Amino acid sequence: MEEKKKKRSSAKTLQTAREAGYFGKKMLANTRMAVDEGRPVAWAMVEWWLGATIAKAMGVELVFPENYGAFCAASRTAEPNLDYSESDGFPSTLCGYARNCLGYARKLKENNFVIPAESTGGGMPKPDFLLACGAACDARYKWFQALGRYMDVPVWLLEFPQTGSKEYFLPGNKEENISYMVEELRAFVSFLEDLLGRKMNWDGLEERLDILFKTHELAYKVDLMRRTVPSPAVCTDFWALMIPHLYLPDDLEALAFYQRVYDEVKYKVDNKIGAIPNEKYRMMFSELPPWHTLGFFDEVAERHGVAFVFESWNYHVPPPLLEDEKKGITDPLELIARYSYHKFHHAAPAAKEYEIDPILFTAPYLEYVRDYQVDGLMFHPLMSCRPATYTLMHVRNLMLERFKVPSLVIEGDIVDLRVFNEEEALAKFDAFIETMDYHRELRKKEGLHW
Amino acid sequence: MFFAGLDVGSTMTKIVIRKDSGDYLSIIKPTGAEHRRFVDKVMTEALYKAKLSFEQIDYIVATGYGRVNVPFADTQLSEITCHMKGVNWLYPSVRTIIDIGGQDSKGIKVKNGKTNSFVMNDKCAAGTGRFLEVMAELLGMKLEEIGEMALRSGNPVAISKMCTVFARQEVLLRLSDGAALEDILAGLHQALAARIFSMVSKIGIEREVVLTGGGAKNAGLVKFLEERLGFSVQKPDEPLLTGALGASLAAQEIAQKAVADGAMPKQKNHTLTPASFFEEMPSVN
Amino acid sequence: MIYYAGLDVGSLLAKAVIMDDDGILAYSVRSIDGNFRQAARQVMVEALDKCGLLSETLNVVGATGLGAAFVNDPAVRNTEISCQARGIHYLLPQVRTLIEIGDQSARVIKLTEKGMVADCVVNDKCAMGSGSVLQTIAKVLGINVTDMGELSLQSANPVRFSAGCSVFAETEAISRIAENARIEDIVAGLHQAMAFKIGSIAQKIKIESDVAVTGGGACNPGLVKMLEKTIGNKLFLPREPMFSGAIGAVLMALEKVRMEKLCCSN
Amino acid sequence: MQKSSGLERASYIYTNRLQVARELKMQGEKFGGYLCCYVPVEMLSAAGYVPFRIIGDMNEPITNADAYLPSVMCPFYRSCLDLGLKGKYDFLDGLVSPHACDAAERVGLVWRSYFKYPFTFYLDIPHTVHASALVFFKQQLAHLRKGLEEYTGLKITDNDLKKQIKLFNRQRELVRQLYHLRKVEPPPVSGTEVLQLAVSLMGLPVQEGNLLAEEVIKEVKTRKMKPSKMKGRVLVWGCLIDNTAITSLIEDCGLEVVMDDTAIGSRTFGHDVELTEDPLDGLALRYLEKIVCPRTFRETGKNRANDLENRFSYLRKIVKDWHIDGIYMNLIRNCDIHGYEVPEVRYFFEEIGMPVLVIEQDYSTAALAPLRTRFQAFAESIEANR
Ligand SMILES: Nc1ncnc2c1ncn2[C@@H]1O[C@H](COP(=O)(O)OP(=O)(O)O)[C@@H](O)[C@H]1O
Ligand SMILES: Nc1ncnc2c1ncn2[C@@H]1O[C@H](COP(=O)(O)OP(=O)(O)O)[C@@H](O)[C@H]1O
Ligand code: SF4
Ligand code: SF4
Ligand code: SF4
């Protein structure tokens, strides 16, 4: 048990995935360098490219405390931060990333905003503002608001409207949503201009968007290639590869890197090289992983030939915007709004077809299980993140009813390794293999193609 | 005037009888299942020891888990208030009290001699003294011994299960694997210390920290808690007594205030069922 | 003749069965008493004695349970969940949901018509709902665990337990005794509290009929009745509810051995 | 039942609210279920529905919902869905669920994936009070109005809406009167009684509710109060308390609940809807901007002091006007909205010298008993500090 706990990170099957960690460190280093050079820095929530690109076009360096939380968890240094935030009165049920960040911020403050020497990855420097977001979860703005306790910096909340599967199709609703987002982005630009005392660089923004779309196109193609049997890449690869497309998509280095990812995956597909030697079961993982124990996935691959062929809807890039939707748009802010909105609602037609809600965290799975020929889902209900957990039971019911795809539920947490019981999880996995066998037959009987 | 404080805990019943001069005397007995009748017995014993009659006691305050079962008490107060008063009297500089009892564990923040805030765990045995009781019983050891023994370990065995029942099983497995007793004990104490620390942290720990309750008698637990805290803590000579002591102080305050207001201090006119078994009584310590 | 043995080395009890192709030849159960290895060895010897066999005659030995690692080789080990599923399928093939109440475990397993695991939930964080609390309370009440079921059936007015904790349930029982509550009401109350907890575990997967109970807890008719009431399904009991795991261990072991043979002969 | 006093009737309706609704339904009323205090009840009422606030039941163990929602989420909304799954809300003719918090949003959406009501609407609510947010929210309200019209086949005119706004303004005004009556010591009406009335109002046709509230006020005004033996007056802060088991427990321990900042209470009855030319303007303004709940983000302003003032200054006023001695912060486990807010709110109260008790509760009456010691200790410390 003890020895297993020590095996923290996973081996990763792609060469490029092994290199991707560079981008996480680069992001952190960039912000520290910016501070040294007197350039503005912000902490941002993942807001699906809504405001980050804009801020960067204004010369702001960004770092993402969510990513930092995962980083601390993976290097098993989050626990003291968690304790430190709890001891300031934050309930232990709050998001693990948030508690890690709040604990870190408290330390930073107590150290007069000099990054404490022992900080993981060199640490995040004090920001000039906080970029919060109204998408997906309440933590995304409440957490940054709560940071006011430690740092006297403005918080900007970027709104992200969210629609039900029926309401999405109400006449006018979508366009109203978009124009609301555009208005909010305009207000954000003014906020930045006021704060930084300089004008928006619109050309720079368009250039960045261009790079972003190119990086994302590659990332999307990689996703499509993963439908191949045997799967050329698995979840542990993806969780490393996502750093460039999620956090630095408008960075030329990231674009070049993604070209290499594409080439590597393409080579494996063309030569029918599977990520794991003996792929017997294709599984999908939902939603946020146990960063502290990714070695678990190597273990099940080895034991049972399980390849996790797809995972974590919310970290993926959406399918590219339809040309129709892009046509005639000259305002880069509108393009951004449409793209981010699309990220959250691209599965609306599927949701409508099956009459299910919500669109986010639920409807995309309807497509994935079919397209990726999934034998089973592994759900990871988190002790500390509700938004990515709320719909798991619901999705589990849906997948079983509609597609005869069973799920395995293993409780844990993104950051807090105290609640993940690896031994128990492996035992459940053993039993689940049978469950998948059985449902394969059921699907055959029902005429489902995989 | 004489005042009495009774702390009817889940495992121990403690009584303090004090004079207005500040002198006091105490007695501690296991609570036993039938605390209603038993309390009368312990009270009789305490009175006997103090050479007082029941009528001579001016005011009685009961506290603790079984406080509602003290028919002859004039007032009942929560154990939080009483522990705070007792500890604050003994250590005027106290800011944080950590009390580890058999039924619950709690943290109390003290400011100007008053309760500022507190936290409590009484839902899951895993964070209370009960956890160690269960383990001592399992290992066939005395509660008094396990703490010392844990201190002898150079290589604590990590106990991964939170739940008391599962942890008990884990201990058995570790024993079968051949792990050393002291290493297992150290692991158990560390686990408990971690849980208590994380609970008390919620109210913000400030020095001085005073440890009370049965848990404070366990040298191993004290040390592991100190390790977590990063500094040393105070503990009273008799850590079980602070609740009863505080109750007796509260009794004094209430009675003296009543007298100052020109009222009769006694609200109720209860009687004590006299216990007729002095000969059974163990010698008074 | 070909003989097989199955061992389920639980946390409290070790159980053994001896089978041949026609069915079960002998059962045996004994307490672990803190020594898994010895209990596993002994229980096997006892079972073999009962049908007059020697351990050399065994062709296949299957093992499961918390202490499976302590069973002497050669043995084929499998997890409890799969073994319980196979075992109950062998005993009662129509069962689709199995509730297993062991000393440390409360599990709900859904089965396919072939006896494979279709789904399962386990109490892996908190012991409330599993059987160990019964021993503790029996000791406090001065009664035998084996009598608790019958006793509780006589209660019309179960005591309400407020603690959701196995350990604190003991304290509560003590207080109730002090308040002169009737023993049968206390026991029934305890069964009720356990049944609630198991019910809430079971709710996580939609229960399908037929439902069976196994494990030591199934030997307790009082608990079984409360459980029936809580989940609103009729519960079926195999003839020897404690041995489903051991039987499953044999069956799983046979599957594995046959698979291997098949592979080799090809 | 008709003859009994207003308070008795409120208590009866509180206890039997589902049954009362069923009886009304037999008499021809239609019921529009809604979650949280962010749904404009005026709109439902104008469409001919009795707006019916869906709440949970702390006495009922959550069982059926376990198959649909994970156990780490807000137990209040788990309980709501559980009751729904058990058929307790089967008299509802529709469901409007708002984007109030994550839990409200997801539960509303999961709910309608399983129960196909004739009419459902998911009402998105912006997180900010920017001007563009008001415009957007008004558009959302227009969709709701149109949806209701299409479904019922009836037109909802501006005048219909204005009429309802007046009626509900009256209701809110009445409840606020009751709140004001509690400013004196001893308060003539207990926290438990006010809660009973509040919950009753959320399930009655508005006019009937107004009559009930009027009666209650008349009765309370004529009450003769003996000097209270209570140890202190508390303000309850938190998402909501919808069960008198909690208020009674607090009151039993010697504390008077005289004011609340919760969603079944002052957040629901706190502000009127302005009668604007276009009634949707007034509705948007009240429901988005005027309701003060931590789910809505307020601009941080110049600095932290400014931020805290923006967010919490109303609490200081409550403390002063209602002569508050202590604050009970009622945190429902797993609540993010309130959980992130706890340290700052606590800090704010402590700065103004208020003792604070924070309890993370599980939304179950079975789990209340152990809390008694905490409330007693809190009452004792308030008394000592008073
Ligand atoms: N002599 C001792 N040595 C070590 N631990 C002790 C000793 N006495 C009591 N304890 C611990 O203290 C706990 C009981 O503490 P106590 O404060 O008496 O609780 P309560 O107030 O609930 O009766 C026991 O569970 C045990 O862990
Ligand atoms: N004859 C019996 N009557 C009632 N209960 C029993 C009986 N035998 C065992 N039990 C209960 O069953 C539990 C042990 O079950 P078992 O399935 O053997 O567990 P494990 O496999 O973990 O050892 C004990 O906790 C005990 O309470
Ligand atoms: S989605 Fe979950 S993990 Fe991510 S920020 Fe929100 S609460 Fe935290
Ligand atoms: S986890 Fe264990 S100790 Fe805690 S409540 Fe459950 S049974 Fe009791
Ligand atoms: S307690 Fe929190 S999560 Fe639950 S309804 Fe209230 S605001 Fe939402």
Protein described:
Chain B: It comes from Desulfotomaculum copahuensis. The complex is a heterotetramer of chains A (450), B (285), C (266) and D (386). Chain A has 450 residues and is of the alpha/beta class. Chain A contains 19 helices and 8 strands. In chain A, helix 5 crosses helix 7 (96-110) and helix 10 (202-225) runs parallel beside helix 12 (252-270). Chain B folds into 2 domains: 2-81 and 241-280, ATPase, nucleotide binding domain (Nucleotidyltransferase, domain 5, 2-Layer Sandwich), CATH 3.30.420.40; 94-229, ATPase, nucleotide binding domain (Nucleotidyltransferase, domain 5). Helix content of chain B is 40%, strand content 19%. Chain B has helices at 35-50, 79-90, 129-139, 143-151, 164-177, 181-201, 219-229, 242-260, and strands spanning 2-8, 12-19, 24-30, 57-63, 75-76, 96-100, 105-111, 114-121, 209-212. With 266 residues, chain C is an alpha/beta fold. Chain C folds into 2 domains: 1-91 and 239-266, ATPase, nucleotide binding domain (Nucleotidyltransferase, domain 5, 2-Layer Sandwich), CATH 3.30.420.40; 93-237, 2-Layer Sandwich (Nucleotidyltransferase, domain 5). Helix content of chain C is 42%, strand content 21%. Chain C is built from 8 helices and 10 strands. Chain C has helices at 36-50, 80-91, 132-141, 145-153, 166-178, 183-202, 221-231, 244-265; strands spanning 3-9, 13-20, 23-31, 58-64, 76-77, 97-101, 106-111, 117-122, 211-214, 235-236. In chain C, the strands form 2 sheets. A 5-stranded mixed sheet of chain C has the order 3-2-1-4-5, with helices on both faces. A 5-stranded mixed sheet of chain C has the order 8-7-6-9-10. In chain C, strand 2 (13-20) and strand 3 form a beta hairpin. The longest helix of chain C has 22 residues, at 244-265. Chain D is α/β, with parallel strands linked by helices and 386 residues long. The longest helix of chain D is centred in the middle third of the chain and has 24 residues, at 158-181. Chain D is globular. The chains are: A alpha/beta (450), B alpha/beta (285), C alpha/beta (266), D alpha/beta (386). Chains in contact: A-B, A-C, A-D, B-C, B-D, C-D. One adenosine-5'-diphosphate is lined by residues 10-13, 65, 102-104, 131-132, 134-135, 145-146, 149, 215-217, 219-220, 242 of chain C.
What characterizes the major β-sheet of chain A?
4 strands, parallel
Ends of chain A: how far apart?
36 Å
Element-level helix/strand string of chain A: HHHEHEHHHEHEHHHHEHEHHHHEHEH
- SSE sequence of chain C, one letter per element: EEEHEEHEEEHHHHEHEH
Q: What is the structure about, briefly put?
A:
The complex is a heterotetramer of chains A (450), B (285), C (266) and D (386). With 450 residues, chain A is an alpha/beta fold.
